[in-house]
Design brief:
heterodimer, A: DNA polymerase, domain 1, 5 strands, about 15% strand, globular, B: about 260 residues, alpha+beta, Uridine Diphospho-n-acetylenolpyruvylglucosamine Reductase, domain 2, Enolase-like, domain 1, five-stranded antiparallel β-sheet, 12 helices, about 35% helix
Chain lengths: ~160, ~260
């Protein structure tokens, strides 16, 4: 069986997989990192979003072998060792941006990439468009949008722009 | 998904050799192909990952922009050179799927698949781009040969796509299926050295096609009014639960007018 070697949340792993093993299967079933969810399994809902080499991708639509040699970050890799939450997680908590929580890991991973991709500012419209690939069936998105807008200045060490206030 | 042997060659020659095996398939970004495999619609013996061939990248020269086949939609949408030279192509790339799909999906993969609802075929046909493979150069008019059918041989790889400059005007408008976000009708309009060209995707049972009546009307008068009266015959257009052929025929004129207005 082929071997995939990759870094997940800063830790190196070398795991035997099948050619057809998906990245999300590797994470959940081989590495027991079950924070990454499988919602639709058809790359529409975004519950499986993780970062591969810093970019958000849908781990249900990437083969484990495609991530060979890559650095992967999952929801488990965001908080600090002492339990201090990542600013995006903290703002999701602060703004009550989740109800059942199933979509939340993917939402948070997509949201962090979205904020990273917009260093000069992020409007509410851009946030809503940026969440195109993530579905939430509980919240109606309003509080998720608020949480992301509130996380933007924290992540960029800036004052909140007017649009995010 | 049926299992397969995964291979990641590091040269085009090795990739082509692997693809010459029966039941071998190429893997580009995988955003269409992996879902196809999950549904067991395809059973390759070997999957040849093209990510190690160095085919990603955008090169802007004076008279052309060359986009490597493995360049992602996200990279194309983010390219300042493409935004400046061919704004319609930039807009199209930023409108495919979602951010996560755009981080993986590639122009070469989309063109090799030639899904009848894919966006890029409309841009490539309207801009008269050249498909460069490991064996030859193929003009856009010759390349697209109907739904999921192209001029490519089974062991032939797209290496890059060349867009001749300058492009005077370009824009793309699509009417998205509200659920899948695929183009029910997408229209790319362009005015370049190749003349005025209008390409329609999503609508026809035969995949992307040029709308010559609109091209002639726009050649004399680049304005939405010049094509407002043009009706597309519904024969040969898709008719499904999302919309009838007549509805799609109507959408073609509406999308074309919007695209012309956006490029005016």
């Amino acid at each position: 069986m082929p071997q995939v070697t990759l870094t997940v949340n800063g830790k190196s792993h070398s795991v035997e997989v099948e050619g057809r093993t998906l990245l999300v299967e590797l994470l959940r079933e081989k590495l027991a990192l079950t924070g990454t969810h499988v919602g639709c399994d058809t790359s529409q809902c975004g519950a499986c979003v993780v970062h591969v080499d810093g970019r958000s991708i849908k781990s249900c639509t990437m083969l484990a072998m495609q991530a060979n040699g890559a650095a992967v970050t999952t929801i488990e890799g965001l908080a600090q060792a002492d339990g201090t939450l990542h600013p995006m997680q903290e703002m999701f908590r602060e703004h009550h941006a989740l109800q059942c929580g199933f979509c939340t890991p993917g939402m948070v991973m997509s949201a962090i990439d979205l904020v990273n991709m917009h260093p000069d500012g992020l409007t509410e419209h851009e946030i809503r468009e940026g969440l195109e690939g993530n579905l939430c069936r509980c919240t109606g998105y309003h509080n998720i949008v608020k949480a992301i807008a509130a996380a933007w200045p924290l992540m960029h060490n800036k004052q909140a722009p007017a649009a995010a206030a | 998904m049926y299992d397969f042997t995964y291979q990641k060659p590091s040269s085009i020659a090795d990739a082509v050799k692997l693809l010459a095996e029966p039941e071998a398939k190429a893997l580009a970004g995988g955003q269409t192909f992996i879902p196809v495999l999950k549904q067991r619609l395809n059973k390759p013996s070997t999957l040849v990952d093209l990510a190690g061939l160095g085919l990603a990248g955008i090169k802007a020269e004076g008279d052309k922009i060359t986009i490597g086949a493995m360049t992602t939609h996200g990279a194309i949408a983010a390219s300042p050179e493409i935004k400046k030279a061919i704004p319609g192509l930039s807009m199209m790339a930023g409108w495919i799927g979602d951010t996560q799909v755009r981080h993986c999906g590639t122009m070469g993969g989309s063109l090799a698949n030639n899904d009848p609802s894919a966006c890029y075929p409309a841009a490539v046909l309207a801009l008269n781009a050249t498909i460069v493979t490991d064996k030859r150069r193929i003009g856009a008019d010759e390349y697209f040969q109907g739904m999921f059918t192209t001029a490519l041989a089974t062991d032939e790889l797209i290496t890059s796509i060349e867009f001749a400059l300058p492009v005077e005007k370009s824009a793309y408008e699509k009417f998205r299926n509200p659920a899948s976000r695929y183009a029910m009708v997408g229209v790319f309009v362009a005015k370049s050295a190749a003349g005025v060209r209008v390409a329609v995707t999503g609508a026809s049972q035969n995949g992307v096609f040029r709308h010559t009546e609109m091209e002639q009307a726009l050649s004399g008068n680049w304005s939405p009014d010049a094509i407002a009266h043009i009706k597309t015959p519904p024969g040969g257009l898709n008719s499904d639960i999302h919309g009838s052929a007549e509805y799609r025929a109507h959408l073609i004129t509406v999308m074309a007018k919007r695209a012309v207005a956006a490029a005016s």
